Task: inverse folding
């Protein structure tokens, strides 16, 4: 039977690989962002480097998209302890990463506005658009709430002894710290990869019976 036809193997493998790939794509997107690399006042940078913005925004978009199968896989592993908590946290995390993915479209608009208009004027129009209550409460606030949900889901997974206790802390610190170029990008990227990667690798190492809950986990995780 091929992996695509094997429901348990395919879903386990997809979730695990996505958790490993997401931080790598995220860091690549951060490094490609010309404003983050420059630091300080980034007004006009997007207008001067629209190609780099296009690459960066696309990578960051996909880094959030890749988290979706991983989050679903994390929810799947919470079965006996903290199930309700895990479902609520997982739902919040899913809604959040979808909103962060949508926010990446704003970078394309900033690049075109700063390129077509005087940079300060273009940046101001972009800022005004993102200050709209719909953008704030419809996208930005849910996005950051989703990061909280991802952290809480990781804690629920650790409580279920499916991952080390430090993994959710590393994931959250890495996501928030990576945009601080260059030290934060290096340290944060490694933290994000360590936290997300250890969960993904445990999924990849599981047997299909362990994944489905038909057999006890072969590896117990200490507190």
Result:
């Amino acid at each position: 039977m091929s992996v695509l036809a094997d429901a348990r193997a395919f879903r386990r493998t997809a979730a695990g690989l996505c958790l490993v790939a997401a931080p790598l794509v995220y860091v690549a997107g951060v490094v490609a962002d010309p404003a983050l690399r420059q630091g300080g006042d980034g007004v006009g940078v997007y207008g001067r480097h629209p190609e780099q913005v296009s690459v960066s925004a696309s990578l960051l978009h996909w880094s959030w998209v890749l988290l979706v199968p991983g989050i679903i896989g994390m929810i799947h592993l919470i079965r006996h302890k903290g199930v309700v908590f895990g479902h609520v946290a997982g739902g919040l995390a899913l809604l959040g990463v979808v909103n962060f993915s949508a926010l990446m479209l704003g970078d394309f608009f900033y690049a075109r506005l700063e390129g077509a208009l005087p940079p300060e004027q273009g940046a101001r129009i972009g800022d005004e658009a993102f200050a709209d209550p719909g953008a704030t409460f419809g996208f930005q606030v849910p996005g950051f709430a989703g990061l909280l949900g991802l952290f809480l889901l990781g804690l629920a997974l650790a409580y279920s002894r499916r991952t080390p206790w430090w993994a959710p802390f590393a994931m959250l610190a890495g996501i928030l710290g990576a945009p601080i170029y260059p030290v934060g990008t290096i340290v944060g990227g490694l933290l994000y990869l360590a936290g997300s990667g250890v969960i993904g690798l445990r999924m990849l190492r599981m047997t299909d019976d362990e994944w489905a809950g038909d057999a006890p986990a072969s590896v117990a995780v200490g507190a």
In short: The chain has one domain: 7-212. Residues 7-212 form one domain.
